[in-house]
Design brief:
Length: 254
Amino acid sequence: MEWAEIFSEGRSAAFLLLFTRFTALFMAVPIFSHANIPMSVKAAMAFFFTVVFFSSLPPLQIPLDAASLSVALLGEMLFGLTVGIILQLAYHVITFAGGQISFMMGFTLASAIDPQSGVSMPIIGQFLALVSLMILLALDLHHWILLFASESIASVPLGGFMLTPELFKYIMHATLNMFIVGFMIAFPITALSMLADVIFGMLMKTMPQFNLLVIGMPIKIGVAFVVLIATLSATMLIVNSQMENAFYFLEKLF
C-alpha cells in the first residue's frame, strides 16, 4: 500500500472511526473499563489495536462529508457503549446477588469502594465480583472481547451501526434476566435466613431470655457463610454461562 493511499481522506476517516470504536469499547466493556486503569492506558490500548486492525479494514461505505462523518462517529460510540451495556448486564448479575446476600446477612452498612467501578458496594457483593472477575480472566474473557471486536469490523461496517428494535428488546430482556438470575443466586441464603428468622422468633416466644442480637445474628451470619462457600462454584458457573449467552446474542445481533 502506497503512502499516498494510506494518508488519503478515506483511510484517515476509517482510522478515526476505528479508533472511536475501540475507545468506546474499552470505556464500557468489563475488565477494560476498570476504574484503576488510567485513561491514558485505555487510549494507548485503543490506538494500538486500531493500528493492528487498520490493515484489514474494508473500504468505507459512507460519504466523506462532515455530516456523514459526525453521524458515523456517533454510531461508533453507540456501538461500543451498547456492547458494553450488554456485557455489563451479564456481569452485574453477581453484584446484584451480592447486594441481596449482604442485605440478608445484615451487612448492608458494611460497604467499601469497589476497585473496578469506583463506587461503594456491600462487601459480599464486592467479594463475589472480584472472584467472578478472576474466573472470567482465567476463562480469557479479555480475549473474547478482542475477538469480537475483530469480527465486528466485518459484520458491522464502520459507520454502519444503527439501533434496532431487536437490540432494545434484548437489552430489556437482559435487564430483567439480571434481576431474575440475581435472585436465583441469592435464593439459598435468602431462604435459610428467612427460616432462621422464623426459628429465632419461635425461640423468643418460648424463651423470652433468648437474646437475638447476641446469639441469633452470629448464627445467622455463620450459616450464610457456609451456604455461600458451598454454592460459590455453582455461582461462578452461572456467571460464566451468563457471559457466554451475552456473547452469543452479540454475535446473533451483529
